[in-house]
Specification:
The protein is mainly beta. It has a single domain, classed as Beta Barrel (Porin).
Length: 163
Amino acid sequence: MTFYAAQISGEPTWQKLITEPGGRFVNAWLIAAALAVPWKSRAAWLLEAEGQIVYNFGDQEHWEINVAPIVARWQRFPWSERLATSAAFGLGLSYATEVPEVEIELEGQSQRWLIYWMAEFTAGPPDTGWAVTLRLHHRSDAWGVMGEDGGMNAVGVGVRYAF
């Protein structure tokens, strides 16, 4: 289970968030609750499916539902005995209950259904199940697959608990 809060970036691409940290952000936020269910484990890899419920607020107010049936999580780092760490990437679909106003401002247009992907890093005490998480929350048209324009990037911080 993961809970996080994030601010939506005003940068045009997710790459710019990584290459130029501290870029511009807009007055739009989200809070998310995510439940991941592991479905396959192999050595250091864990494959999960994740579902999320997200509330957007600030310059826009609506709900968002994201489903990522494929989340690949790497769990073995050299320091894992001292600091349990994981890195994950997930891909799926996103549905917004309203066409997001901020996405229209940033991209020119948007739609309710978009592709969703996430990248996440976690770190916490070993053998407790608790971790702090840093997450990139991304909605996009996937280069025209889901429409002509739309999407956003949000950077979030939260907590994760593995049962």
